[in-house]
Known about the structure:
CATH class: Alpha Beta
Distance between the termini: 39 Å
Largest sheet: 7 strands, parallel
Oligomer: single chain
CATH superfamily: NAD(P)-binding Rossmann-like Domain
Shape: globular
Number of helices: 9
Amino acid sequence: xxxxxxxxxxxxxxSGIGEALSRAFYNEGANLILSSRxxxxxxxxxxxxxxxxxxxxxxxxxxxxxxxxxxKTREALEHFGQIDVLVNNGGISQRSTVLESELSVIRRxxxxxxxxxxxxxxxxxxxxxxxxxxxxxxxxxxxxxxxxKFRSGYAGSKxxxxxxxxxxxxxxxxxxxxxxxxxxxxxxTNISKNALTGDGTNFGKMGDAHSKAMTADEMVDKVMPKIxxxxxxxxxxxxxxxxxxxxxxxxxxxxNKILKNTxxx
Length: 265
């Protein structure tokens, strides 16, 4: 029970990686704050976790409404008295070219994926600094390291996430606050179904790569030991995404040639 007595706040907790992380942290003894837009779905997740309702607080949160973050943080602290781990997991993907993507869609991707994580972190961070301990975890992506077709806005937001939280880590060493970037490749979730197309509507179908990928629970089983050790970056991929990262380090030009003719949906 590694997290017994600790409080973990997870955004995007209603499905996919967020739900799997909620299950893992709960099984490790943590008190949970579960956040996403849909309260009714969060209540369903809560009901599946265990009988100890006192350890789970459902706190609806819309990552596009940064003006609510201060109040939501106050509610979280009032409920459990502390926040030991903040998991910035909420996010949305994209399936559209630059030419067909409205600027408002690209702004929405940045608002949710980047400013949502940055804004909530800024509200929680003073509490962690004052206590001299804490752990900020951010779900980035392999797309935070490699750009591909149909992901310009998404990759841009995740590259921004990488830059911000790598910088934050440097500032937090003296305060004993750890920062972990979680970089998954394709995971079998609804992320492609919920991805935004050029006009902002949902893509609505499971991508081929996602349908053949590991499940969120399988992914979380692999990363939890590293999360417990507060690893600075955790990359969890299938063979192709892992190879792409390796090739990029060796030769970005070669990777671009490979990606040019690779199906990425």
